[in-house]
Amino acid sequence: MIELVKYEIRNGVAVITIDNPPVNALSPGVPEGISEKVDKACEDDSVKAIVLIGSGRTFIAGADIKEFGKLAAGKQANTDGLHSLMNAMEDAVKPIVCAIHGMALGGGFEVAMACHYRIAVPTAQTGQPEVKLGIIPGAGGTQRLPRLVGLAAAAEICATGRKIKAGEALKLGMIDELMDGDLLESAIAFANARAESGQALRKTRELTEKLKITDDDRMAIDRLKVAVGKKARGIAAPLKAIEAVEFAADHSFDEGCKKEKEIFFECLCSDASKGLIHVFFSERAVGKVPGITKKTPIKEIKQAAVIGAGTMGGGIVMNYANAGIAVTLKEADQERLDKGMAIIRKNYEATAKKGRLTTEQVEARMALITPTLNYEDIADADIVVEAVFENLELKKKVFTEIDAVAKAGALLASNTSTLDIDQIASATKRPEQVIGHHFFSPANVMKLLEIVRGKATSDETIATSLALAKKLRKVGVVVGNCFGFVGNRMFGPFNHEAQFLVEEGAKVEQVDSVLYEFGMAMGIFAVLDLAGNDVGWRIHQEIKDTLPEGIRQPLMTEPLYEKGRYGQKTGKGWYRYEPGNRTPLPDVELEELVSGAVAKTGIEQHEISSQEIIERCLYALVNEGARILGDNIALRSSDIDIIYIYGYGFPAQRGGPMFYADSIGLKKVYEKVCQFESDQGERWKPAPLLKDLAEAGKTFGEWDRER
Ligand code: ZOZ
Ligand code: NAD
């Protein structure tokens, strides 16, 4: 049996080491192990004090999230065991010193708070990130933390879930001392000193000083509630965490823990928590790609180049500079190059104005960017990322030019949104080093990177791209090569369905508000106006001759383009915009344009319900997602979920479109898709995988696990 908690005596101190890689989560066996070892130390007369420490890269990163499903279903002992452990630690007759390196998060910091003293290395981080999983601390965190840091600070920490660096944790009172040098040796010395001092042991749960609420605290908590309420979007946990912390002000510790437990289980059983936990594991699954192992060679990227200083090129350059990688920006045109560089500077300066960068950091990042009009200047780059106009012939020409100058072994990536990576690769003599790096707009903000593998792309190129994504602080998802890859291929039917609803009588702002209420970051028409309706028109020009006969196409692509309604950039699109203001405003002119286009067809307008908007827009996504899985373009349904959450603003608390479909039930989704097919025609033909799973009573999640 693997021993998850180890015990040794060093210099009169019992050292209890949690050894549960990779992050020392409180998996079954760990709390029991700590409890047993604390008892053992207390019974041993040769032991004067106790040190609790984590082995490997971290202290305890929290409860074992894999166990939460069982906990919610009541199939596993509840949290009482953890509460008993923590009370027993506080009641121990010998000082317990918690020695923190890496992370002490969630249940990990709750264990730390039950120790009499906490010391940490300067690089350590603490926090109560449970709200990010849709829950609140469940092992006394909402009651012990305010006793250490005060009610207002505890409410803020529990409601935001942010990580707190050791320096701030010290100032707040979460830890007692920072230690340079060897943590274990320092902790042993600290523990011996506490034992020798003979002072009474400090039990966090008995502290009351910081529970007195001042007017300032009250105001801070009220402000926090407003801020958190605005961002909640259907996730109850942040406000509930504040409620639990506030309860500590005028209730005993035990009453507080009882209240916390009620709220913890209420949140744990919520749909939002199920969705967010699914996202946690899905985000970590994307890095697991068949054929790519720890042994697959990875190229080091020290120098990059980007071709094209437009909307995307500029954002991509910023990603490299932010990661400390020198990057050359090559344009075809001096004016555009100057404009691109000026926008990059303006973006950095705007961030500095918000206090998130210093002037020196802005200059350091700008200094990493070298503008040029000459291909020779990209010869030293380890990676070249192309971001020129979306036109296959132009991209092929540009790739031939890059191939001629780029050094041997350099990766050649295209930021194309839709085009065939194999065709682009065929313009070079090194197709194995060609790959899609599909960033999402705004490229310096959105976390997704679709990594598109062509038929010749080598494992080394893929592994390097995955490692690079992490360095650029993106979530890299490997997908196959087809028109639009995963994200944009699904966006097509989603976008079309939204437009059809408007043609059939829904208002643009009605569709957007239903999608926003569902949890999307933005309504789809607001997104289209942001991306540019001219871009959609251009893509349409590329594919219009290849569209299948008899499939309904949106009516508004040409009229919007002809009228210059490109979106925000021209002050009008699906909405109108006041000069200098990005708020979308409903526009009668647009409505007239739609009515005019619809009048030439047989479409009869009628009232459209919110339910129809949700079902048609979301099931269009799901049906295409199922087709993509059947075509082996995405590895897992959970990869699609991550793509939609990080690339398209899909609400994380819904778990992504495929998880959402699972939560509705695939039988119900399939039946609705069949009904749409009979009402609306062939575009709603159910994907074979959706049909198979619905008939077998299975979910996409089960399909992922069975592969
Ligand atoms: O992994 C990063 C992280 O942020 N982890 C989650 C931290 C967190 O949310 N902690 C709070 C958990 S909830 C809680 O603690 C509730 C509570 O109050 C107790 C209530 C009682 C409940 C009763 C219990 C039944 C971290 C920052 C730690 C490390 O990041 P890295 O980027 O270095 O590494 P990752 O994220 O790739 O992780 C490595 C592997 O570890 C797995 N993992 C991480 N945290 C876990 C966890 N598995 C289970 N539980 C956790 N808390 C992660 O999935 C990954 O696994 P592989 O297989 O993909 O390698
Ligand atoms: P853009 O029109 O803003 O910029 C393209 C730039 O490429 C222009 O500045 C142009 O001067 C430059 N260029 C053209 N030919 C060149 C050459 N031979 N050498 C150097 N520079 C050249 O376009 P964009 O929106 O940045 O899109 C670029 C690519 O990114 C396209 O493939 C597009 O499909 C893709 N993309 C766009 C978005 C988006 O939301 N805009 C999102 C993801 C991907």
Structural notes for this entry:
This protein has 707 residues and is an alpha/beta fold. The chain has 3 domains: 5-269, 2-enoyl-CoA Hydratase, Chain A, domain 1; 303-479, NAD(P)-binding Rossmann-like Domain (Rossmann fold, 3-Layer(aba) Sandwich); 487-632 and 635-706, Orthogonal Bundle (N-(1-d-carboxylethyl)-l-norvaline Dehydrogenase, domain 2), CATH 1.10.1040.50. Helices cover 49% and strands 11% of the residues. The strands form 3 sheets. The protein has an 8-stranded mixed sheet with strand order 12-11-10-13-14-15-16-17, with helices on both faces. 49% of the residues are buried. The structure holds 3-keto-decanoyl-COA and nicotinamide-adenine-dinucleotide. Nicotinamide-adenine-dinucleotide binds at residues 307-313, 330-333, 336, 387-390, 398, 415-417, 439-441, 531, 535.
Topology:
Elements: E1 5-10, E2 13-18, H1 30-43, E3 49-54, H2 68-72, H3 80-91, E4 96-100, E5 103-105, H4 107-113, E6 117-120, E7 125-127, H5 141-149, H6 151-160, E8 164-165, H7 166-172, E9 177-178, H8 183-197, H9 215-231, H10 237-247, H11 253-268, H12 271-285, E10 303-307, H13 311-322, E11 326-330, H14 334-353, H15 359-367, E12 369-372, E13 383-386, H16 392-405, E14 411-414, H17 421-425, E15 434-439, E16 448-452, H18 459-471, E17 475-479, H19 487-503, H20 508-518, H21 524-531, H22 533-543, H23 557-562, H24 588-599, H25 610-630, H26 637-648, H27 657-664, H28 666-680, H29 688-696, H30 700-706
Parallel strand pairs: 2-3, 3-4, 4-6, 5-7, 6-9, 10-11, 10-13, 11-12, 13-14, 14-15, 16-17
Antiparallel strand pairs: 1-2, 7-8, 15-16
The chain binds 3-keto-decanoyl-COA and nicotinamide-adenine-dinucleotide.
